[in-house]
Amino acid sequence: MLKEINKPNGPVSAALLAGGIGSAVLGLVTLAVELIGDGPLKDSLVWYEPSGPLSGKSGLAIIAFFLAWAMLHFVWKDKETDFARISTISFVLLAVGLLGTFPPIWHLLAGG
Amino acid sequence: MEMTVNEIWTVVHGLVFGFIFLLGSSAALYAVFSMRAEWMTAEGLSNTAKLIKVYLWGLALAVWGAVITGTYIAYPLYRARPPEGTTDLSAFPRYLLLSNESTAQWHEFGMEWKEHVAFLAPIAATVVAFVVSYYGPLLAKKVGERRAVMVFFIVAFAAAAIAGLLGAFINKYAPVR
Asked: What pTM value is reported for the model?
């Protein structure tokens, strides 16, 4: 028999949602750069010249993931959350990340 | 059997870090899937949870290693610009691929997809490692959470597999030397 310890699901929701947020940031920033093309946005994402804008795109996604996780964990660490709703939102955000990083989507949205 | 330093780093990126993650994923996925109260004794669940925690954090570290070596070592070698007037592009993989219509899509589709989607893998893998560590054997009673973890892990695996497969093909046509 498993020892029943009541662990709130807040930290789990925080991690999942943060993962979704990080993924979505990657997808949306990548999509934005591809649709806008060369210019200030792309230039601002060159955080490490040899890697080009990929360094900034991935950097933003990683920062968004860890920052969101830290904040959400702080808020939800002792709470019981609506896990079904939060996990659904997380999956949708993951999908945004997957779609935003898929080149045919860029071409489709660019009308080309 | 000599290898250049650049080739060694490409191997570390793909065949060490990437391979560890891809090869280890199926066992991890099954281990999480099988953490069910009706399938295991309490002792079995406890032991599985202890092992799988270490295993999942190891996989997460491996895939972070893959994307970091990829972005900051292998990718700069791939996208290096040839000096003006260079005719032999074999040392400049990106430009080599783009110089020919029959290989351009390996960059425009292949590398463009690979370099971005890969980052979903370490993010998702880290989430999985945390959730399994947090719940431990209790994950056996958390059906929704276990399913969510598996979704995230499947995404992590898919992203890494796409990146790995495309990387292997790209390196075949335009190797980093």
From this structure: 0.94
